[in-house]
Design a protein that fits this description.
By secondary structure, the protein is of the alpha+beta class. 30% of the residues lie in helices and 25% in strands.
């Protein structure tokens, strides 16, 4: 989960407007630039506010159009000249889809009826794309492919759903294609082809009021044709030699046109040009068009226009976009007399005005220190050292830590960060290069290259701030640095290639005073440099398709080749240079980020060379949480038990501490004589909120302390993933400090400042956070690294509403639901992690101080330690309040425009591998479901249930409208089309928990599963329905049931959803990865809602599947024990093992929930399968021979003994006595199957299963290894563990209430409360040793007592036996009486 924060810099980036788009609701304006970005503006009545920038295209954006898919958000599709097509959710600022077509593109349009996308390029064919997945559906083919299409339009004939495509080619031909409503053909050929005399056409459009007129705008003239047969009706030339850019029909008899110079003209058409005429009459052309009105829109010649009639009002919008992102918008009424009234004043918006708010920039202290305007002209990230180097226009190079520089850029903290400055350039620094990032084994991490406008190349040792070499060899400023190929040897190894504006190539090296290679005479800009090391030559390819061939060793120009020869030479086998490209400038989608070592990286960006550098700080929340876990583990005292580390509650476990201190030789005594030399119990209770113990210090503890300190030092090198301990070296401490600074920066930037003043004060005083003094520009980043970045001034509208305050506290939560989701998840997860980390560090310091060190009698030291403990408790409370604010309270303080978190994104994080992210996602998901109420949950069901229906192996039992319980118009046509879309493989949900779930089936299963599990009273549970076949009886039962206002899901929908969950649980790993988030989520939801799913699922199959997941060999037994004890996961480890541990934890918790919900059914199912297993083994069948059969669970039972043991033990502890009585015998059978017989030689049953022996119906004799178990049928089962046999005794006619065996195993007593009788059995030796002889076990006597009335609420106060001696035993009855027996 990546979170970007932008430091824009002192000047706005270049944004040369190339296309303009205005949404149908007239509220959103989007401009596409020649630099490849999209700018989104909010349009108000008297203002235009820039909102955000969308970065994804790598070339100039040529067209933007809106998609109408029946959704609430605004979806647009954009195209670039290099063939890239992107689909965006502009309302949310989210990237949706990307498609690359071959060949350059010119424009795209959306077909009105089908919403398919029609794409036109510089070739003779056009493509029709699907609006959902951007796949090519149809191709419009021309008879002559050499007729390139320059412009086209789409119109729909009246009284039909068919569409017509009319285009103009480069040689003046008009071509038409007919698109019927039910178009099925893949290839569509043209239906008409007619030559026209117009040249250089730029636009063709029809009169929207009447399709009789068609206007074609060319560069030097515009014409009106008759729409049916293209008969020329009117022609007019351009005014004063200007060139036309476009035009539209303004009214039925008026047209509006605009020129490249920015002048707008409105013409009135003659009557013969707007009504049918006799085209044989040649006198009509004498009546020209008359100019009604003209005005100039600006002085800048490079501009783009947009003309659109509003669909909501009677207004017309004219938008002009200029270089620099300046926008002018005119709004006038459709029927106004423009010749007399004009079109009024424009609404203006300028990025330069926006940047007057002085947005934060990196190293702004350098500009303030110089006292003169100083811009960042070059920048490079020094990864993986967590530094960034910035070159300024005054020639200075400033180097500092990323986190510290960002903190000082956003805050008002004085003093400045710790910078290193390099002085040497006499003019602006043009470019910087850090080659160690590309080749760490060849280049030193202290070497930095710089090039300036003073024509120099300098090589620095930035760690020592020393200049190693300086070369002034170029005839222009250096534009970029390149690295030699990886196979470079000899003197080229460790060198750097520099290219200057004068088209000169030089190769320099820190150890050489002169350049190794110097190539001039290039007459065009250099595009590429390639190497042929075997031939010792360098190939320089220029923009004029010329290749210069140089000798590498001699430095002489061998020859120059052009044309096809040059292309063949450059494309032959050769090695290119390694170029350090900016991710945002020229790298294609999918470029990965630098390796992060502290949870954040910085991405410098510059769209044009004249721009000031901006910086995107990208946080990796999950990596940051992982690093904090590693630091937390590194500070643990080696003397503390590992189970304390994995405890969910970070407070002190005193039982574990007692055992450890006892092992060290320190005696633990609960005394009060030496309170003056230790922390008192009251003070410790305030610190840990737990019962306290006094730890008197022994004289030998000093030696133990020194020994333990040496152990800690020696173990610092064995910490996970190289994270050092607190005794590590300077580099290690710097890395830990960088991680902490990253946490501070991220939490301070994302915290909801201004919502609660008390929490804000706590954050500033106790949690080490800072309040940003400058406007923070947030953003989002998608899976293929496309960005949405908020522009400075995005809170301008909120500022006016808040009465002029700088920061409106609720503005950020009203922008984007994607951003809201990521911010809430990150803050909640990090705050929770910080709370446990701070407390754990305090806990370990307390252990060192109390159990290993002497505490002085000085009261001042005790007060200081107590003050620290109070501070730690305040920190814990502060982090808790921060978590509660963002997880629960925030929506109550935000106005109605609150952008709620995306439930689809939270659903994917429902079982995230990271525990903190998982818990935060679940809390946010459940809060959001409760906040939206019943109607909101109903809308969710209606939205997501079709994705379950579209699964191929799930057929809806009833029509879709009947299942939804709504009328037909309520179901969008868009959702109907989803049912026919083939399902994407669920294996796309990756192991890395990335946001790749365009698989809507996975999201729908999780969302609906959570709704059913948490709101099961709002679903239709008709348990008698499957068992009734008569329709009359079924209707009668329905009539007797209480009427409800409605159900979220009907019975048939529940049945289908249950089948979907079960199918995902049992999917093989080849289809659904074993440790994927989807499988974990399905496991968790089955356990949570099994009270609902139980009627539709096979309990045995579910339990066996969960047990099989718990037998994963990737998870060691120690981790499984920790999961069973505390439910926690290991904080460190590789991704595969952490994901496997998370799957085991989810399966364990789900099996526990199912067993607690249906204990008897669970035990019966396990007993049945174990009995089958034993019978097959006794018959001589092996587990391997039975494992291939699908109905056999023998492999699961053989490997899953420990998970079954944990499951049964939990059933014993959590179930009531009345629920355990019928299944006690089967529980003993399962326990004896799971436990190895060898363990009974050294341990008793009370040690192995403590909760079982506390039951009065079970007794164990350790001398004979026999177990006696009573049953509800009056039988007493005697289990011989050594022989592996069980023999029943008919003791009572009613249920057995208590049994006991003598210590020597020769006497057995049983009691039945309902029958009121005690039976005493005896044998001469062990009971089962003579079991083969019927006279060996004899009934000594029977004692009749008063029968006891058993009430349902007395299941805990049952009767029991207690041995008073070797021959006397007492019976404690239910009514409190006590009977004594002598045997």
């Amino acid at each position: 989960m990546l979170l970007p924060i932008v430091l824009w810099g002192s000047k706005p980036p270049s944004h040369t407007v190339n296309t303009v788009f205005l949404s149908r609701d007239d509220r959103t304006l989007v401009t596409g630039s020649c630099e490849g970005q999209l700018l989104v503006y909010n349009v108000y009545a008297k203002d235009i506010v820039p909102k955000c920038m969308l970065i994804g295209h790598t070339s100039s954006v040529c067209s933007i159009k809106q998609l109408s898919l029946g959704l609430h958000d605004l979806h647009v599709v954009s195209a670039s000249i290099e063939g890239e097509i992107y689909k965006w959710n502009v309302t949310d600022g989210a990237y949706l889809k990307c498609k690359a077509l071959q060949g350059p593109l010119q424009s795209l349009k959306v077909l009105p009826s089908s919403q398919n996308i029609l794409v036109c390029g510089q070739y003779g064919a056009m493509h029709i794309l699907d609006p959902i997945n951007l796949d090519v559906k149809h191709v419009l083919v021309a008879f002559d492919p050499t007729h390139w299409i320059l412009c086209y339009t789409i119109f729909q004939p009246p009284k039909t759903k068919d569409e017509e495509v009319v285009s103009l080619t480069i040689n003046g031909y008009v071509k038409t294609w007919h698109l019927p409503d039910n178009l099925q053909e893949k290839t569509i050929t043209e239906t008409e082809n007619k030559p026209l005399t117009c040249t250089d056409p730029v636009m063709i459009t029809y009169n929207p009021k009447s399709l009789y007129n068609c206007m074609i705008v060319c560069k030097t003239e515009w014409r009106i044709y008759r729409g049916g047969d293209f008969v020329l009706l009117l022609t007019d030339t351009s005014q004063q030699g200007s060139r036309w850019m476009g035009g539209r029909f303004y009214q039925t008899n008026n047209v509006i046109l605009w020129t490249e110079a920015g002048t707008v003209y409105i013409y009135k058409l003659p009557s013969r040009a707007i009504r049918p005429v006799d085209h044989t009459d040649t006198t009509w052309a004498a009546e020209p068009a008359s100019c009604l009105y003209s005005f100039s829109t600006g002085d800048t010649p490079l501009c783009k226009f947009l003309y659109r009639q509003s669909l909501r009002t009677v207004h017309i919008y004219l938008v002009r976009g200029e270089e620099g992102g300046d926008i002018k918008l005119w709004k006038f009424e459709k029927d106004a007399d423009v010749a007399k009234q004009g079109i009024g004043k424009s609404i203006n918006c300028s990025l330069n005005e926006t940047w007057r708010t002085n947005p934060p920039s990196i190293a702004r202290e350098e500009c303030e220190r110089c006292g003169t305007p100083c811009d960042v002209t070059a920048s490079v990230s020094l990864e993986p050292l967590n530094y960034v180097a910035c070159g300024f226009s005054n020639g200075t190079i400033v180097i500092g830590k990323i986190a510290k520089m960002a903190i000082h850029s956003l805050s008002s903290l004085g003093g400045g960060a710790e910078y290193k400055r390099l002085y040497g350039h006499k003019d602006s620094v043009c470019t910087l290069s850090f080659p160690h990032f590309i080749s760490p084994t060849v280049y030193s991490s202290s070497v930095l290259y710089s090039g300036g406008k003073d024509f120099s190349v300098k090589i620095w040792d930035w760690k020592k701030t020393q200049l190693l070499q300086s070369f002034t060899i170029h005839a222009g400023f250096v534009t970029k640095f390149l690295l030699p190929p990886t196979n470079a040897t000899g003197r080229l190894k460790g060198s750097m290639v520099s290219v200057c504006e004068g088209n000169i190539v030089a190769v320099t090296k820190p150890t050489n005073a002169s350049p190794l290679f110097y190539g001039t005479c290039h007459h065009a800009p250099i595009q590429e440099i390639r190497w042929r090391m075997s031939e010792d030559i360098v190939l320089v390819y220029c923009s004029d398709d010329t290749v210069y061939i140089w000798g590498l060793s001699t430095g002489h120009l061998d020859r120059i080749e052009t044309g096809h020869v040059a292309l063949n030479i450059i494309s032959a086998d050769s090695t290119p240079c390694q170029e350090l490209k900016s991710i945002l400038n020229i790298s294609p989608p999918g470029t990965t980020y630098p390796k992060q070592t502290s949870g954040l990286s910085i991405v410098p960006f510059q769209f044009r060379r004249k721009d000031t550098f901006g910086h995107i700080i990208v946080f990796d929340t999950e990596l940051l949480l992982h690093l904090v876990s590693q630091i937390q583990g590194s500070f643990y005292d080696e003397g503390v038990d590992d189970t304390i580390k994995s405890s969910k509650n970070p407070t002190m476990n005193f039982d574990m501490l007692k055992k450890k201190v006892a092992q060290r030789g320190a005696e633990l005594r609960f005394t009060h004589e030496r309170r003056s030399s230790i922390i008192t119990q009251t003070e410790t209770a305030k610190l840990l909120d737990e019962r306290s113990v006094s730890l008197p210090l022994d004289d030998n503890l000093k030696a133990e302390e020194e020994k333990d300190e040496g152990k800690v030092k020696s173990s610092s090198n064995n910490l996970p993933n190289g994270i050092p301990s607190q005794h590590g070296d300077t580099l290690a401490s710097d890395r830990i400090s960088a991680i902490k600074e990253t946490c501070t920066l991220l939490l301070s930037g994302l915290h909801a400042w201004g919502v609660d003043e008390n929490i804000d004060s706590t954050c500033l005083k106790h949690l080490g956070m800072f309040s940003p003094s400058k406007e923070v520009s947030y953003g989002t980043v998608s899976s293929n690294f496309t960005f949405m970045l908020m522009l400075p001034g995005w809170e301008k509208r909120a500022e006016a509403q808040s009465g002029g305050t700088l920061f409106y506290p609720y503005g950020r939560w009203c922008i984007s639901s994607t951003m809201t989701t990521q911010h809430l998840l990150s803050v909640s997860a990090l705050a929770n992690k910080q709370m446990s980390t701070d407390l754990t560090l305090s806990f370990n310091q307390h252990i060192r101080a109390v159990s290993l060190k002497r505490v002085s009698d000085n009261a001042t030291e005790r007060e200081e330690l107590l003050r620290q403990s109070i501070n730690e408790s305040e920190k814990k409370a502060g982090w808790s309040h921060v978590t509660a604010l963002h997880c629960i309270v925030l929506p109550e303080h935000v106005p109605s425009s609150y952008c709620s978190p995306q439930l689809s994104h939270l659903a994917l994080k429902w079982q995230d591998r990271c525990m903190e992210v998982r818990e935060a996602a679940q809390a946010l998901f459940l809060r959001e479901l409760r906040r939206i109420g019943f109607s909101g949950r109903q809308q969710l069901v209606n939205q997501w249930y079709p994705y379950v229906v579209r699964k191929r192996d799930i057929n809806p039992p009833e029509p879709l409208e009947k299942i939804f319980n709504v009328e037909l118009p309520a179901i969008s046509k868009f959702y109907r089309t989803l049912i026919n879309i083939p399902t994407k493989s669920v294996s796309s949900v990756s192991l890395d928990d990335e946001d790749t779930p365009n698989d809507h089936f996975a999201v729908s299963v999780i969302i609906l599963g959570v709704i059913v599990s948490e709101f099961n009273d709002e679903v239709e549970l008709n348990n008698v329905r499957p068992h009734i076949t008569s329709p009359d009886k079924l209707e009668a039962i329905k009539a007797r049931q209480p009427k409800k206002s409605g159900f979220l899901l009907t019975y048939d929908m529940l049945k289908m959803l249950s089948f979907a969950l079960f199918s995902q649980l049992t999917q093989p790993p080849s289809i659904l990865p074993l440790h994927s988030p989807l499988r974990r989520a399905v496991v968790d939801l089955i356990g949570r809602g099994y009270s609902v799913w139980g009627d539709f699922m096979n309990l045995t199959a579910v339990i066996m599947a969960l047990i099989e997941l718990q037998t994963d060999p990737l998870v060691p037994i120690e981790t499984k024990k920790a999961i069973a004890q505390s439910g926690s996961l290991p904080g460190t480890g590789n991704k595969v093992r952490l994901a496997a541990a998370a799957t085991v934890r989810a399966a364990y918790q789900a099996s526990i929930l199912i067993a607690n919900n249906k204990p008897q059914h669970t035990i019966n199912s396990l007993s049945k399968e174990i009995l089958t297993f034993k019978c097959d083994v006794e018959a001589g069948l092996t587990v391997q021979s039975l494992s291939p059969f699908p109905s056999s669970y023998h492999t699961v039972l053989d490997k899953g003994r420990y998970p079954i043991y944990l499951l049964v033990q939990n059933v014993i502890e959590k179930s009531k006595q009345k629920d355990l009585s019928p299944i006690l015998v089967k529980i003993i059978e399962i326990i004896l199957f799971c436990i190895d017989i060898e363990q009974f030689k050294t341990r008793s049953l009370s040690d192995l299963v403590p909760s079982l022996t506390r039951n009065p119906m079970v007794d164990y004799c350790s001398s004979t290894q026999q177990v006696a178990v009573g049953s509800a049928e009056g039988l007493v089962h005697i289990f011989d563990i050594r022989a592996g046999k069980c023999t029943p005794l008919h003791a009572h006619s009613g249920p057995t209430s208590a049994v006991t065996m003598s210590p020597n195993g020769r006497t057995l007593l049983t009691y039945s409360e309902r029958e009121g009788k005690v039976t005493i059995w005896q044998s001469s030796s062990g009971i089962l040793s003579l079991m083969s002889n019927s006279t060996a076990l004899r009934l000594i006597r029977t004692v009749d007592l008063q029968p006891q009335i058993v009430f349902s609420n007395n299941y805990h106060n049952t009767s029991y036996f207690k041995w008073e001696g070797t021959r006397s035993v007492s019976l404690h009855q239910l009514d409190g009486t006590k009977k004594l027996f002598t045997v």
